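Reviewer comment 2.1 asked that we show a complete input and output for one of the modelled complexes. We chose the LNRAV4D5 case, as it is the one discussed in the main text.
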Amino acid sequence: MILEGRPTRSIRRTEDGKGAVILDQRKLPWEIKWVELRDVDAAAVAIREMWTRGAPMIGATAAYGYAMALAVDPGDASLAAAYDKLFETRPTAINLRWALDAVRAAVADLPESERAQAAFARADEICDEDAELCRSIGEHGLELFKQLHAKNPDRPLNILTHCNAGWLATVDYGTATAPIYLAHDAGIPVHVWVDETRPRNQGALLTAFELRNHGVPHTVIADNAGGLLMMKGQVDAVVVGTDRVTRNGDVCNKIGTYLKALAAHDNDVPFYVALPYTTFDPNTESGADIPIEERSAEELTRLSGPLANGEIGTVRVTDSPAANPAFDVTPARLVTGYITERGVLDRI
Ligand SMILES: CSC[C@H]1O[C@H](OP(=O)(O)O)[C@H](O)[C@@H]1O
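Response of the prediction step:
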């Protein structure tokens, strides 16, 4: 099923098959700008500077960047150097490692002359698989939403989400948004509370953009408002994406997720995490072992956006020192269930 009102893919190969095309998400929603990535350095910059972001999208972009590196130099030294260059862009989302390992495994035993083509083919597979995984997450989440809505059939189902785990964060459908889109398209009245998600406002800018384009009723709220809404019975479930789920079920996600889980637990609101298997990390025991990315303080001390004259400007929020951890960890004990391509699981 192709969702109307938006591109069907957030990443694709260039026409000549030698690069990748992504949306520059830093410009959204004010400008829809597709950019071509033509080499591994461009892919690394796009990931590190968050032109494109979201765990599956980071993996997909890195996969194509890896293939571009091998098209220039397919030797073993390049295979290792390109892996490291892409791996060190952002430390938290496990999809990055998963995708790089998948491409390396597909080419390492091949003759050098065959490596680039095989790498691009594996990157294509990663993208096609991600779209299918997210659609399956949506199908299983749809059944859950039907059960939740049956409890209060005379009013919309109120879902709260944090950050952007939408089609912009994946190859298609999204993870947390997949059940929202499929429920909306199936005629289930869904309303979404969209956490703005400071400091980069992926919720207010990206999730709101997606939902607006798809005609899904939604309300942008301050990150700190969710607890009150839950206390007032205005949230039927919290559904978020994730960047890494560890073997014990701990969930690493955008900063602020843990606080939503605490409020949900205190108000008996179910808290679900949507993820494909590519975001599960069996090699890490618990959330305590996950590297938490620390991003620039400027992301917190400066705000940018269109000024009255339409130009993109920046305003100062504070001139004081700032700390900017980009993720936090929600312990498994606070997670009601995991919405996966295999179904809704009460333990991962
Ligand atoms: C489906 S992954 C979405 C996940 O990625 C986001 O992080 P970022 O925007 O920094 O890449 C956020 O944690 C989302 O939940």
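Residues 53-56, 163, 165, 169-170, 175, 202, 240-241, 243, 253-254, 326 surround LNRAV4D5 (CB under 6 Å). We note this here for comparison with the apo prediction described in Section 3.2.
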